[in-house]
Write a structure and sequence with these properties.
The structure is a single chain. The chain is mostly helical. It has one domain: 434 Repressor (Amino-terminal Domain) (Orthogonal Bundle), CATH 1.10.260.40. 61% of the residues lie in helices and 0% in strands. The chain has five helices and no strands.
Length: 71
């Protein structure tokens, strides 16, 4: 699973549209779409925001290692 697929997986788990999720992590919907399609990589700030807001393990987001949740 790619980093974009993992970001999309988190969005689908929290049942938000791309626009809603993008607003939550403070990026544009277009940028989120590019990330989910693996056309670009998320910034460190975006990953940290996503990790904090949704209690997601950064190792899982970046590398696909470990469990998705921190707990």
């Amino acid at each position: 699973m790619s980093i974009g697929e993992r970001v999309k997986h988190v969005r689908e788990l929290v049942k938000l549209t791309q626009q809603q999720f993008a607003n939550e992590i403070e990026i544009s919907q277009g940028r989120l779409s590019e990330i989910e399609k693996n056309k670009c990589k998320p910034s460190a700030e975006t990953l940290i925001s996503l990790s904090k807001k949704y209690d997601i393990n950064l190792n899982w987001l970046l590398l696909g290692e470990g469990r998705p949740n921190k707990s």
